[in-house]
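My current task is to audit a protein record that another person submitted. Please read both lines and tell me whether the tokens look consistent with the sequence. Do not assume that whoever made the record got everything right. I have pasted the whole thing underneath without changing anything:

===
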Amino acid sequence: ETMLHNRFVYTYEVSCMKLDLMSVLSTGVDAIDHQHAELFDRVNKVFDLSGGMPHKEQLGDLIDFLGDYVVKHFKAEEELMKKSAYPGIAAHQELHRAFLGEFTKIKEEFEAKGPGLTLMRNTNKVVVEWLVKHVGIEDRRVGEHLQKKK
């Protein structure tokens, strides 16, 4: 079933949301776009390989990747915002902190209970839906700002 959210189209398949990085999600900043593409590719591979229900090791690998990725990506993005005097930096940083809080809950649940269907769905929802919205709206704003500063 294909759903339209604002200007973003993504595919919802039973318990798995599969995301395609489309030009509409591009920020126009190569460094940011390459990092986003890596993230979307990694998430899609996990759900493709598992048929929508990752095995414990696959979900664990994804959670480990995300733990490293978000710290590095958010730091790089925030540095670009600082250097360019992005006026919305404080609000953007707050969104990053909120995602880290949600991610921490997912990681703790995985460590405590393992990879159940509920955790897989929650991981998918939090990671994919939030990133579609964040990348498609907030990061595009940053990209527009950075393009003007060139």
Q: What stands out?
A: The longest strand covers residues 8-13. Helices lie at 30-50, 56-83, 89-113, 117-149.
